[in-house]
Task: structure prediction
Amino acid sequence: MKRDQILPGRRAMLRFTACLGAATVLRGLNTDPAQTPGRFPAGGPPPAAGPQASTPVKSSAYRLQPMTANAPPSFRPARPPVRRRPFLRMPELGHAMVLTFDDGPDPRYTPDILRTLRRYDVRAMFFVCGEMAVHHGDLLREMAADGHVVGNHTWSHPLIPSLSRAGIRDQLGGTSEVIEKALGDAPTWYRAPYGAWNRASFQIGAELGMEPLGWTVDTLDWKEPGTGTIIRRVRGGAGPGVVVLSHDAGGNRGQSVVALRTYLPELLDAGYRITVPSSVPRGMPRA
Result:
């Protein structure tokens, strides 16, 4: 018998052994929770990545593996590019302006601002802090129901360049998770406290699916300069594509609330549309 010839009985035994081995491997893949999408080890699911108390959970894994990772490529949301600087104005919106409010939501001031915006049927952007948002999901839902954009303003308003990459991810990831749990969708815009950005924040923001937005006009309302001063700053800086920065939390924001009641109708009377970006407008630089 030649060396490359195998007896029929031996050939059948080899086939049976190969099939048995393949079946064992497949059964192992289907029963090992560590390798089955959507399942957890016997100890139960891991703790939520987002904050559960007044500080974000360290080493947040939020969005490290997007929920759409197993979706067909055509249904996966594209990550934005890593920016080198934030958007400071929205010229592609035409004869329009964007009003933004930071640091909330605060039940002392945010509802009054929402009522004024609702009265004039306009939309604004609210960049919320996680430590505030986690306790006021009802206000987040009210913002979204009125058509406002809810953005990410970190968890506790730190100076971003002073943080490690893990710290930046905790601050942004924890806040994004709170917003997504309340609204069903993750935020697509974020803003660095104090306007202090660095490359790591741009990279991590893009990983979390967010675009960076700065501002054109700073009302400096956090200094409580007086209602008239806030109004004059908005009037003086008004123009197509201008992004106005104000606050609805972080201190006494009574002046901000009253000023909005004056300058908002004035802007509308001057022909400006007060609107929000649904995405990065066409024609704006992609990087």
Q: What stands out?
A: Residues 68 and 77 are 8 Å apart (CA to CA). The two ends are 72 Å apart (CA to CA). Residues 1-8, 10-53 have pLDDT under 50 and may be disordered. The chain is about 35% helix and 10% strand.
